Amino acid sequence: MPRTKGRPGRGSAETAPTLPPPSSADPYGTWPAHTGTRQRRENRGDTGVQLSRTDPREPALLVVHLERAADSWVELTSPRGDDKLPRQILTHSSSLTRAVVPVPADGQDTIHLEMHTRRGWRIWLHPPEKIPLLMREVGSTGSYVLRHPGGREPLRVSQHDGSAFSLHALRADFRPGELLCEGSGAFTAAAVTPKKPCLLYIRSRGSWTLTPTGDPKRP
Question: Which of 66, 75, 78, 81 is in Cβ range 3.0-4.6 Å of 87 for a Cys bridge?
Answer without folding.
Answer: 81
